[in-house]
Every structure is written in C-alpha cells, then in structure tokens.
Amino acid sequence: MDDSQQLQQVRARIDALDEQIQRLLNERAELARQTAQIKQAAGLGENCFRPEREAEILRRVIARNPGPLSGQEMARLFREIMSACLALETPLMIAYLGPEGTFTEAAALKHFGHSVKTRPLIAIDEIFREVEAGTAHYGVVPVENSTEGAVTHTLDQFLISPLQICGEVELRIHHHLLSRNKALTEVSRLYAHQQTLAQCREWLDAHLAGCERIPVGSNAEAARRAGNESGCAAIASDRAREIYGLQALATNIEDEPGNTTRFLVIGSQAVVPSGNDKTSLLLSGPNRSGLLYDLLRPLADNEISMTRLESRPSRRKLWEYVFFIDVEGHMEDPKVATALATLKDQASFLKLLGSYPRAVI
User: Fold this and answer.
1) β-pairing, 93-97 with 138-145?
2) What is the pLDDT of residue 47?
3) Which of 199, 246, 147, 227 is closest to 213 using CA atoms?
C-alpha cells in the first residue's frame, strides 16, 4: 500500500469518527434536555446549571484522558459541549466587568463556555446588583492577582451583598502592547488599567520610559481609545486587539511570566460538595491583642488549610477590620463544620460567602 492509499484510509477513518462523534453529541444533548425537563417538572428551578456537577465531570475527563490531547485541552472541549447542551433549554445570562474584550469576559467564557449570553457592565457593584435583581443568573468579578494582590472593590461588595460565591476561575494574563501605529517611537501616550500598568512596569520603564501613562477603567476601554486616537497605544488582550482593529507592537509584556488573575463566580444558589472545594468567609471582632490568632486557631485545631487571608476596614467602627479568608474544604465537611461552629461563638461577626468547587481548567 502506497502513501496515497494510506492517507485515504486515515481520512476515511476520520470521517467515520466525525459522524460517530456528531451522533453521540446530539444524543448527549437530548439527554441533557430531558434532564432539564425532569428538573423543571419536579419544581427544582429553571436554572439547570450545577457548578458541582460540572466540576465533577471535568475532573473525570482529565483523570481518564490517555492523550495525545492534554487533559486540560480535553476538559476545555467538554466545557463547550456542556455549555451548548445547557443552552438548549435556557441560555445562562452572565454579567461581567466590561466592556467587551476584558480579561473578565475571557474568564466568564472559560468558566461557562461560549454558548451563554453575556452582559458587560462598567463597575463591579453593578455586577452584584444585576445578579441580585435576577436579570443575570451569575456574575464574574476579579478578586486577586498573583502580582498585584487583592481587588478591593470586589471584597468590599461582599460586606453588603447577599450573594454567594458559586465558583472560581484562574486565568493566565498575557498583556500585549496594541496600537494603530507601526512603531514604538510613534507612541507618546499609553492607556491601561492601573493594575495592568503595575504588572508591566519593568517592561514599560525599559521600552517606553518617556511615554505618558494614563490609567483607565479597563484594558478594553484602553484598546477602544487607542483605536480612535493617533500617537497612542494600549495594553490589552489579544481579544481586544481583534475587536478594536489594532496591531501588536509587542506581546507578553507582563513582568511576571506566571501572572495569573483569580475571578469569582457570584450567584444566589448554594453549591453542594463536589469533592474538591473551597469555602470563603468573613470574620471580625473587637480590636484587641491576639484577635487574629484566636480567630484562626479553630482552623488550625481542625487541620484546615487556609489558602488566603485579606483584611479590609469594616466600615462600622474606626480602626476595626474584617478578615476575608479562603480555606480548603466545603462547609458541610465535618472538620470545616466544626471549625465554623467554634468561630460562630468566638467572632463578633461571621459571614459565610459560600463553598464552591476549586478551579478545574
């Protein structure tokens, strides 16, 4: 058998597999639709999205994957399959920090897939209000960056919002220098979000030291301005480059190659255990010696790993602070439940923000 015949055989096998995959995808979609109809008939609510169920499926996809596609790549494919199947009934409306082309939009699509409807909003507090009002099923908000730390606007909203955390997204952040101009020497003004300017400070000092740096509300807004003005550039994503018709003068200009932003998915539903979860909570007490030690001790006594600790002014009393804490485990796990019961007795203020699956992809 010559090479041409072998190639024809391989292509015929690919065509047969494509037909089989297409048939199985439609069969899966029909079963997903039947599942949604059963839930609605049983009065289990119109929203069929179950964060813990989807996390379990994606973990199984990664665990059983033999290659040559990577486990993460296979999980992304299944993410889109689940998104398309869910959209057959009621497409989810997801609010995110806009405008179109932001990293928050990218995080929303990474978590929910591209078959959802999205609504860009200009401020974090608007995302919370949109979800609270029920005009969006979920919202996606940035909460921390591996280089620049906490997003305080998000933390402050949890003090006053009844919403819960339903999931998390981790997104590697790659910043690109975008412009209508063709050379760095033609750029005299630079637009970017304040955190982005900080994340690219060393590169900018080395390559655009004399350029005016102007902070704006989002990198997508920066790209929009760069698309309308001559002599300026923006730091933004590749998606923003496509949307606003810009060209990349430099790519991956972030100072830290592992630069990652963590986003939270907010909603009104409680999430049951998935088997690999986090729990977020707020704690506070009257300012005194040893307060933080006493608040954290129940976690250590119950062998609970704390993954994050931030403090913010409580806004109730001068020099009183609230601690934002993430721990490993679900609030229904025995050790976590025991620690939370102790904290409820010790802390003057305790608010559970939710338990949710750890980021899978």
Assistant:
1) parallel
2) 67
3) 199
154 is catalytic: no
Q: What is the pLDDT of residues 131-167, one digit of tens each?
A: 999 999 999 999 999 888 889 999 999 999 999 999 9
Single-letter amino acid code for the residue at 17: L
CA distance 194 to 151: 11
- Say which of 78, 112, 263, 324 is annotated catalytic: 263
Which entry of 78, 261, 323, 324 is annotated as an active-site residue?
261
pLDDT tens-place string over residues 326-353: 999 999 999 999 999 999 988 889 999 9
pTM of the model: 0.90
Average pLDDT over residues 45-52: 78
Question: Can you give the pLDDT at residue 290?
Answer: 83
Domains of the chain with CATH codes: 3-86 (1.20.59.10), 93-173+260-267 (3.40.190.10), 176-250 (3.40.190.10), 277-357 (3.30.70.260)
180-210 burial code (b ≥16 CB/10 A, e <16): bbeeeeebebbbbbebbbbbbeebbeeebee
Q: Is 261 a catalytic residue?
A: yes
Q: Please count the CA atoms within 13 angstroms of the CA of 38 that sit on its side-chain side.
A: 6
Mean confidence (pLDDT) of the chain: 92
The span from the CA of 358 to the CA of 260, in Å, is 15
